[in-house]
Write a structure and sequence with these properties.
Length: 392
């Protein structure tokens, strides 16, 4: 739509309507102290702490605490938070029974959205001005979302869910619930770092969805359910599955250049490349590549990684001048595959991590709330005359 058309017929002295920006690109929708991105330098920080420092030195639960409450916890605060999360990992048998009625061919993200929303039935008291209520909701959602993901994975295979183990840390417990095998410490540590890397990323689509839902003052379980539904879209959370499909389609390293040139000529989207925020390689992709190499050194090489590296190198010449580089999805799928995680669980795992960021934005939204009500530019007809049914 031409911007000039917005000014047509506007009386003198009346401020012109702001220009229409598809997808609200570049339009500030809130003020936030949670996450900062420097897309030109490739820097991502949570509450002022560089994400690479958090991924190498922190834990997911410590990072989640930082995101939600704004400061790194003391030793006693972290211990209490970890214990509370551990105590609330289990889900009601009624939720498990509900999940057993889901179609086994259904996508795990749909199962997770329904299960997350159902928590609002069990914890229906809404006291958004009560710090104890907010703390309890944060604990329950961070604790139960992984249990729900693991439970549906086993239920759809015709098995009973595995109960959480209280002696295992957060990341290790999730991997255990998927397989009933205690994971290797390195695998658990790498998975925990992956959760940190995916925990928050400013006002992306699912986080914006969470804040819009939160602004109505509904319960936090509906907030998370709405964000899960948004994350499920292939333009947001499902891209790492598509990266593996793309690599399998390319097949061998000698086909990379021809495939990429054809894809560019046909204006196809190169999965795992490009990000609205970053004009350099996504800092999370840099760390995930390092984590992938650690896994391969310990548990055996994945030839698909060589193909990915070749594609990145060739794409640097073709796409780099346009500011298009690997994003967080490019290497994460290779990491998850080496950990033995099914491809259609990649996005639910994204949700396990991102629930920390969603809850941080939920809490921040409550602090200075105003319901979201953006304007629109009407493009339809006007002045139509209604006709009786017999005359149409």
């Amino acid at each position: 739509m031409a911007e000039a058309s917005l000014d047509a017929g506007t009386p003198a002295g009346t401020p012109a309507a702001p220009p229409f920006r598809p997808g609200l690109e570049g339009v500030p929708a809130t003020q936030s102290a949670i996450c900062d991105i420097d897309g030109r330098k490739g820097i991502l920080s949570y509450r002022g702490y560089a994400v690479d420092d958090l991924a190498s030195q922190s834990s997911f639960l410590e990072t989640a605490y930082l995101l939600v409450w704004g400061t790194l916890p003391t030793a006693s605060q972290l211990e209490e938070f970890q214990q509370e999360v551990q105590m609330h990992r289990r889900v009601s048998f009624r939720i498990r029974d509900m999940m057993k009625s889901f179609p086994s061919a259904g996508h795990p993200m749909d199962a997770l959205q329904s299960s997350a929303a159902s928590l609002g039935l069990f914890y229906s008291r809404r006291a958004l001005d009560n710090p104890e209520y907010i703390y309890g909701a944060v604990v329950r959602l961070i604790a139960k979302i992984p249990t729900m993901v693991a439970a549906f994975q086993l239920i759809r295979k015709g098995q009973d869910p595995i109960q959480p183990r209280d002696d295992l840390p957060y990341a290790a417990n999730f991997l255990y619930m998927l397989t009933e095998r205690e994971p290797d410490p390195l695998a658990a540590r790498i998975f925990d770092a992956c959760l940190i890397l995916h925990a928050e990323h400013s006002l992306n689509a699912s986080t914006f969805s969470a804040r819009v839902t939160a602004s109505t003052l509904t319960d936090p379980y509906a907030v998370v359910a709405s964000a899960v539904g948004t994350l499920a879209g292939p333009l947001h959370g499902g891209a790492n599955e598509d990266v593996l499909e793309m690599l399998e389609l390319i097949g061998t390293e000698d086909r990379v250049e021809a495939w990429l040139d054809q894809a560019i000529a046909e204006k196809q989207k190169i999965m795992g490349f490009g990000h609205r925020e970053y004009k350099v390689k996504d800092p999370r992709a840099v760390i995930l590549q390092q984590l992938a190499e650690q896994l391969f050194d310990q548990f055996g090489h994945d030839p698909m990684y060589d193909l990915a590296r070749k594609l990145e190198a060739v794409a640097a010449d073709r796409l780099g001048p346009k500011g298009i580089y690997p994003n967080v999805d490019f290497y994460s799928g290779l990491v998850y595959r080496k950990l033995g995680i099914p491809e259609d669980l990649f996005t639910p795992i994204f949700a396990i991590a991102r629930v920390a960021g969603w809850l941080a934005h939920w809490k921040e939204q409550l602090g200075a709330n105003r319901i979201y009500r953006p304007s629109q530019i009407y493009t339809g007809p006007s002045g139509l005359t209604w006709q009786p049914l017999s005359e149409r």
